[in-house]
Amino acid sequence: MKRAVVLLSGGLDSYTAAAIARADGFELFALTIRYGQVHLREVEAARAVARALGVKRQREIDVDLAAFGGSALTGDGDIPKDRRLDDERSIPSTYVPARNTILLSLALAWAEVLDARAIVIGVNAVDYSGYPDCRPEFLDAFERLASLGTRAGVEGRPLTVRAPLLRMSKGEIIQCGIELGLDYGLTHSCYDPDGIGRPCGRCDSCRLRARGFAEAGVIDPLVGARQQ
Predict the structure, then answer these.
(1) Alpha-carbon span 105 to 111, nearest angstrom
(2) Number of domains composing the chain
(3) Cα separation of 166 and 164, whole Å?
(4) Domain span at residue 72?
(5) Confidence (pTM)
(6) Whole-number mean pLDDT of the chain?
(7) Phi and psi of 48, rounded to 5°?
(8) Could you say which DSSP state residue 7 is in?
(9) Are 125 and 136 in contact (CB under 8 A)?
(10) Cβ proximity of 174 and 184 under 8 Å
């Protein structure tokens, strides 16, 4: 069976992207990164999602991007709330400098060891917060880098970077996941959960998630969690 390394965060996007790869016949190896994010609840969700997906193996590693600062997601400033979601003129303070470059590089290293043929990432360029490392041109460039900078690429076995959600709306992503039988109650999206992990409902990620479920015409299983 062909192998794929999946960057699994515990959010609904990475869960859906992994499920699509599984449906496409890939054996999944999940990589979850603790990069210093303040919302560590997502790591717990990633474990639950990995079990639900039946991944062959999951690895969790620490890369402390909080040591550099520069992002509200790593504790440098407050998480923005009620921000205009369609403002593409500015990159929000939740952008983590070079995060996807670093995470993809780690996935690439493991993929070479596993002789995997693909790296799967749940980035989206339609309903997203304006991060530059979620764009198709970035993924194309990284795939080219992978072909040049690895033994597999030099020997004619280049890896592909699969981003199946790239051009889907959040509603389309959720509809796809439901068709695949996914339990989105296992996931976590919030950037600023409370002390027991309940989503805030006001950060970019919560609001994009809410909009997606509304577009899909289904109830978010986590909605009740905010009300308890």
Answers:
(1) 10
(2) 1
(3) 6
(4) 3-227
(5) 0.94
(6) 93
(7) -65, -40
(8) E
(9) yes
(10) yes
133: nearest Cα among 152, 161, 174:
161
**Banded model confidence at residue 122, pLDDT cuts 50, 70, 90:** very high
For residue 130 the two structure tokens come to: 């304006």
At 82, is the secondary structure helix, strand, or coil? coil
pLDDT tens-place string over residues 160-176: 999 999 999 999 999 99
Residue 193, phi-psi category: left (phi > 0), alpha (psi -120 to 50), beta (remainder): beta
pLDDT band at 227 (very low <50, low <70, confident <90, very high): very low
| 8 A C-beta contact, residue 210 and residue 220 | yes
Query: What is the 3 state secondary structure string of 119-167?
Result: EECCCCCCCCCCCHHHCHHHHHHHHHHHHHCCHHHHCCCCCEEECCCCC
- CATH number of the structural domain spanning residue 54: 3.40.50.620
